[in-house]
Amino acid sequence: MDTKPSKTKCSPLPPATRWVATATLSCALLLAACAGNPPTSELAVASQAVNAADTAGGTQYAPVEIRTARDKLAAAERALADKDYDKARQLAQQAEWDARVAERKAQAEKVQRALQDAQQAVEELREETYRGLQ
User: Fold this and answer.
1) Which residues of 19-51 are buried (b: 16+ CB within 10 A; e: fewer)?
2) pTM of the full predicted structure?
């Protein structure tokens, strides 16, 4: 009796093909996992960003940007309610960035106004000093 294992030729996939197949399957599983989870944390972050922009004066100094952020956040909440998680995630991220732009714009405007006030105060001091010397 021959105890040698039979040498049936089974041609496995080449290593490069196996790697590509594994990577593709992993990406598909990752995307499926992300698509199935509600983006509640993204909406919370976007909501906090909108609140921070409001606190920074976004309504006064960046009204277009803050309105856009609010609109996108509301659309993200509607998409979440409709269970369109990809759309909700995308809108929440856009709302966050719009809110951050509004916040930075408001901060920059406040700094610009403070600088102008300081320059005006310096000019007034110079004029008072000049008048005092005459």
Assistant:
1) eeeeeeeeeeeeeeeeeeeebeebbebbbebbe
2) 0.65
